Fold:
Amino acid sequence: MTQGGQRNPGRRTVLGAAVLGAGGVTLGLPGTASAAEDSSSYRDLPVPTVVAHRGASGYRPEHTIGSYQLALDMGAHVIEQDLVPTKDGHLVCRHENDITGTTDVAAHPEFASRRTTKSVDGVSLTGWFTEDFTLAELKTLRAKERIPGTRQENTLYDGRWTIPTFEEVLRWAEQEGRARGRRVWLHIETKHPTYFRGLGLGLEEPLAKLLRKYGRHKKNSPNFLQSFEPSSMQRLAELVAAPRVVLLSGAGTRPWDFEVAGDPRKVADLVKPEGLKWIAGFAQGLGPTLDLIIPKDAAGKLGTPTTLVRDAHAQGLILHPYTMRNENTFLPADFRRGTDPAAYGDAFGAFKVYFEQGIDGIFSDNPDTALLAAADFTSR
Structure:
């Protein structure tokens, strides 16, 4: 059964012949992949670069080895991980520390008492949180689809995978790099770093330690580091040389570390030439929301492009905006087809418009679609 009772035409055609293997990961030794010694840099990645957002999360539950593996098999250039800590200080891959919607934790009576309400970056949330669990406890949970109402087909894979540690992902990347004879690129985000630092669970130091252990701490290492909090990238700039990206949300928002520090600047200030020059002092790229590239009007249609791409490039910054997805509900109104929000719209048309702005890459839940769109664009 598919969402809305109708099968979305073309989904399997877009997915093509990419086949996911068994989904397991054989853990290798750190620092042994010869591909990791490659002297190339992020500037040598294909343009537009396709970043698999939380893996191939349009087809598998996000932030699972299965999602990462499928993204790599599809040909994604870079694969994203979001990092949050456990109670005992391990880094695990979840989009949020609130795991209510992405795991089966609610079905575990032994953890019923862990359900609580917290304020995370000023937002009140009720659920279960990674920082209240040891790694051993988290490993008893199974991952599930975050938005089953939109991606009902993904629920087929509910319960198949556990929550991966970041170290498991690093070992998986090394194994795949050896098998493929090339480096596996990662896009690694520190989530809520100020919040976790306040709990004594700072993210930057354990992340830097793992990057050094696996030889991914250098200027030419095959990974980007990213955060919505600029101070997290400043901290990591003191610890490792790997390329860094500052993520930017809506123009009217303020990074949480700015809120805590009393810095009055908003994202609207950071996308001005002066703000971009400041970012270029400690980062190599930007990860802006697509609305900062082309704002939408009141009807949800694309409006007039901003000068952000030109201005960022003038400061030597690359741009990997987020996030493109195939479903109508996520597309600009110009590119929706029909009235079913879960049906696929004209994603290729939307990709073309964004690529025409001169962006260096893009995050996508559907790496196969993004790769085809990029091939179309570069073959013109």
About this structure: The chain has a mean pLDDT of 92.
